[in-house]
């Protein structure tokens, strides 16, 4: 049996830049997408952190680590308690978040265990 079309069929190579109009349309589309999807950020803008919550510059690392550990432990307990009040599947999601917080707490605890305040 003879197949009437080649395998794969031959196609014309057509570029979106074949005519001036298509090139202008493509450039306009790129500009529109860049305008909406890539907002420009001025390079001279310096980051100004909020001062509503401030950690003093003289607070030592051990104090910061202990505070972080206690905060993560509290968040873990709150999530665990809150998960107990929820029905599935939200309960599983809440327990998953609690597990991630607990992993962060374990990491901070390990840093505290390894921390040597003398050096």
- The span between the termini is 84 Å
Largest sheet: none
Q: What does the average pLDDT come to? A: 81
Give the overall shape, derived from the CA principal axes.
Answer: elongated
Order of helices and strands: HHH
Q: What are the segments in which pLDDT stays under 50 over at least 5 consecutive residues?
A: none
User: What is the SS-derived class?
Assistant: mainly alpha
Count of alpha and pi helical runs: 3
Radius of gyration: 29 Å
Tell me about this structure:
This is DUF3077 domain-containing protein. Residues 1-23 are annotated as: Disordered. It comes from Pseudomonas lini. The chain is mainly alpha-helical and 119 residues long. It has a domain at 61-114. The protein is 56% helix and 0% strand. It has 3 helices and no strands. Helix 2 runs antiparallel to helix 3 (90-114). The protein is elongated. The model has no long low-confidence stretch (mean pLDDT 81).
What topology emerges from the helices and strands here?
Blueprint: H1 20-37, H2 61-84, H3 90-114
Helix pairs in contact: 2-3
What's a concise summary of this model?
The chain is 56% helix and 0% strand. The chain has helices at residues 20-37, 61-84, 90-114. The model has no long low-confidence stretch (mean pLDDT 81).
